Amino acid sequence: MADHKDTDGFKVQTAKHPNINAVPMRPHNDQSRDRTSKRLSTESNGTSDGGVGSSTPVEITALEEAFRRFAIHGDTRATGKDLHGKNWSKLCKDCGVIDGKNITLTDVDIVFSKVKKKSCRTITYDEFKAALGELARKKYKDKSGEEAEAEVFKLIEGKGPIIAGVTRAVASPTVSRLTDPTKFTGSHKERFDNSGRGKGKAGRVDIVDTSGYVSGYKHKGSYEKKVTHPPK
Asked: Compositional bias of type Basic and acidic residues: which residue ranges (predicted)?
């Protein structure tokens, strides 16, 4: 019985003297907000979770903005951080880097393969600038390296992919016949006049004629004209 009393006393003392060093649990919502804030801050600064970045957002240049626009063109899963070969060629074509003389499509493909990593099928923004530098020296042979790069950058800065126009529908004899009101028959014919213009409600509903003429009479109003202007 003594042992039992001692045990009860120990329980009471434990309840009365909690650990003052214990850290209170934080609500789950607060923890989620902290993780989200940390992730957004990391992405805006361009660093990983373990890296140290600037607290101020990095300003995107006009050249990088064009790079991102072409990087996500035609690919809903693209992040804009890398550019694949197809859109690289389109960028060079749409922005006028390819001129058919100093720079051809073959030159663009060769430079792309040269700057990208062997295990990758895309190029990063830094590799993109290196590729432009290669093409700039070939396109502007009479300029220095920096001047040539500046000229190529101007061709691309702020630009975006050129979207092709809507393809025109090819005229079909069958479609033309089905949409020609002069070839309609039956009740459909009554909905259009001789010029093919729709009659509106008059072509769909039987409207009572109160003019006194017989339905279907073709010379309505001719009598008044003869009386007013008799033939000479």
From this structure: 27-41, 187-196
Tokens in use for 41?
């801050």
Class of residue 143 by CB neighbours under 10 A (exposed 0-12, middle 13-18, buried 19+):
middle
Position 217: which residue type? Answer: Y
What count of other Cβ atoms lies within 10 Å of the Cβ of residue 6?
10
What token pair was written down for 165? 């126009």
User: Would you state the structure tokens that stand for residue 68, as one six-digit string?
Assistant: 């991102």
Torsion of CA 114, 119, 121, 122, to 10 degrees: -70
Specify the residue for token string 């009386």: 227
Which carries the bigger pLDDT value, residue 88 or residue 8? 88
pTM of the model: 0.49
Using CA atoms, how far apart are residues 209 and 217, in angstroms rounded to an integer?
Answer: 11
Question: Which three-class secondary structure state does DSSP give residue 124?
Answer: strand
For residue range 46-65, list pLDDT tens digits in order: 444 444 444 455 678 999 99
Q: How many CA atoms lie within 13 A of 62 on its CB side?
A: 9
Q: Residue type at 103?
A: I
